[in-house]
Amino acid sequence: MTSSTLGRAARPPRPVLTFRQKVGRFDHRFSPYLYIAPFFILFALIGIFPIAYTLNVSLYDWHLLKGQGDFVGLDNYASVLGDPFFWNAFGNTVSIFLLSAIPQLVIATGIAALLDQTLRGRTFWRMSILLPYIVAPVAVAVIFLQIFNQYHGPIAGLLETLGLEPIRWAFDVLPSHIAIASMVNWRWTGYNALILLAAMQAIPRDVYESAALDGANKIRRFWSITVPMIRPTLIFVVITSTIGGLQIFTEPKLFDGRTNGGGDRQFQTIVLYLYELAFPRRDFGRASATAWILFLIIILAGLINFAISRAIRTADARPAALGRMGRFRRSGPGGQGSASGTGSKPAPLTVTGASVGAQQGES
């Protein structure tokens, strides 16, 4: 009899598990999946299914009341892309987005930097900047409609005092975009400021202290330490602002509730154009095609943001890598100076965004 046969014969039999042990083993293996299953089930029902169903509707001549019609393939997409009103809405959307996102990001970063300092009543100020976010959008619209009233608002009164002509906020293209962007900025700046403040609070204080000992002032510390170290959060805010800006609907709709973007479509956005197709015109096929085109535009914008952020991160990592190579060459393999035997004085500490990122990566 061979040794392998003896080994198989000597193997002890498997123990018989009790029912409780079987339940415990099943719980250990599958309970984590059961805990997260409700989220994925809800996401599939209210997320994936509507997207897939909208894609199906976009391929048919679908009427709101008559229901599904003939299969038209990509004709709805061609019709939307060939409609000059769609491109007008696209231009308005991009314009309002730029007028709201850029000032919003700058102001939110500045507010977060101020709240990151030692202030009296910091909790009060941090809570107060969130108040515009919790105000109902309808109330925000009522307030700003009074502010941007062409004849009786405070801005109109100021212009009249200065001897200037009143601005047609609700009728001209650029003034209407500025008014709507002001509503967006007032509502969302504090929200983004709190997100950026949380990122600033996570920066180690000793990094600022080291930079201060090296003679860096507050402005230098902000640009060389704060901004580089909160860059991932800045990218997150930019991406979420991009998604929200391209999907803007509430503010332009409430700015003139009688129309879908003004009498001349001067501030009609893509979502307002979609709304007009879906309900006044009852053309669900073209509306669904518009929704998918907007979905692809948002994905493209996200990819562009990702590419830009990756390029910036690569550019920041290159000086740090070159600095490490330079220190290695100066110190030599044994850390006793260069090959000529002459010692070198240590370089003064310079705190930059790249060096801070490199130090965090090494740690």
Automatic annotation (TrEMBL):
Segment Disordered: which positions? 325-363
Bilayer topology reads: Multi-pass membrane protein
Gene Ontology cellular-component terms listed: plasma membrane
Check the record and name the Gene3D superfamilies matching this protein: MetI-like
What broad class describes the main subcellular location of this protein?
A: membrane
User: For this chain's UniProt record, which GO biological process terms are given?
Assistant: transmembrane transport
Residue ranges spanning the membrane: these are 33-55, 94-115, 127-148, 229-249, 289-308
Q: Does the keyword Membrane apply?
A: yes
Could you tell me which residue ranges the ABC transmembrane type-1 domain spans? 90-305
The alphabetical list of record keywords is: Cell membrane, Membrane, Transmembrane, Transmembrane helix, Transport
**Pfam families to which the protein is assigned, alphabetical:** BPD_transp_1
Q: Where in the cell is it found?
A: Cell membrane
Stored InterPro entries: ABC_transporter_permease (IPR051393), MetI-like (IPR000515), MetI-like_sf (IPR035906)
What PANTHER family does the database record attribute to this sequence?
Answer: ABC TRANSPORTER PERMEASE PROTEIN (PTHR30193), INNER MEMBRANE ABC TRANSPORTER PERMEASE PROTEIN YCJO (PTHR30193:SF37)
Q: Which family does it belong to?
A: Belongs to the binding-protein-dependent transport system permease family.
- Protein name per the record: Sugar ABC transporter permease
